[in-house]
């Protein structure tokens, strides 16, 4: 079984994806980490964000096993990720890796922006997770502030709105709900209720 989970920044995709993966005993890939790793490397190496070929080279050299999620969670890296994610050559370099992960015999859970539309259009279950920008900003603000980042709620909301516009407006694999995805709006749902709703969606689609 392939479960594809897409949605905008800080909607709770990863929280749901990790929980479904544990529940069904499936491997999980947070595909945002791939773009974050490219963005972080570009920042560290002072690569010009207009230099698509150089950024694609970084994407091609990515080692999935060496990713350190904790080191990639900052707001600055998230912003860099969304800038490199606009570039078709970068996306092309990361395509096979994600498709191979989705197609392993065990099945898999992937979360990102284009899983149900581009990476695994054949997925049995597609969930589009969303919440208002204000609810998402509040969640991300708490997360970043909890990690000691000196941010304000207003800055995080502005970042979320900019990311939404860039991710949805780009020409290459934009953030968009797949026609056969079920929308899960968790604005008014806590973590547990959001996960419970996702489990209901899987059950309705697959009987599992
Ligand atoms: N339903 C919920 N209610 C409140 N907080 C939530 C809910 N779901 C997740 N969170 C919290 O919101 C933050 C963002 O969640 P998560 O990382 O799962 O989102 P995401 O969509 O994967 O984010 P991104 O892909 O942009 O990094 C986390 O701190 C998480 O604990
Ligand atoms: N399938 C994906 C996943 C992510 N992106 C881009 O990466 C940025 C960071 O992702 P997070 O999920 O960690 O917030 C995101 O803003 C997207 O621009 C993508 O394009 N496709």
Provide a brief overview of the structure.
It contains 9 helices and 5 strands, in the order E-H-E-H-H-H-H-E-H-E-H-H-E-H. The chain has 208 residues and is of the alpha/beta class.
Kindly describe this structure:
This protein has 208 residues and is an alpha/beta fold. It has a single domain (2-206), classed as P-loop containing nucleotide triphosphate hydrolases (Rossmann fold), CATH 3.40.50.300. Helices cover 53% and strands 11% of the residues. It has nine helices and five strands, in the order βαβααααβαβααβα. It has helices at residues 13-24, 32-44, 52-60, 75-84, 88-102, 115-119, 133-146, 153-169, 191-206; strands at 2-6, 28-30, 108-112, 125-130, 182-185. It has a five-stranded parallel sheet with strand order 2-3-1-4-5, with helices on both faces. Helix 2 (32-44) packs across helix 4 and helix 4 runs parallel beside helix 8. The radius of gyration is 16 Å and the shape is globular. It binds adenosine-5'-triphosphate and the ligand Nc1ccn([C@@H]2O[C@H](COP(=O)(O)O)[C@@H](O)[C@H]2O)c(=O)n1. Adenosine-5'-triphosphate binds at residues 7, 9-15, 32, 139, 143, 186, 189-191, 194. It is an enzyme of class 2 (transferase). ATP binds at residues 7-15. Belongs to the cytidylate kinase family. Type 1 subfamily. Residues 3-202 form the Cytidylate kinase domain. It comes from Ancylobacter vacuolatus.
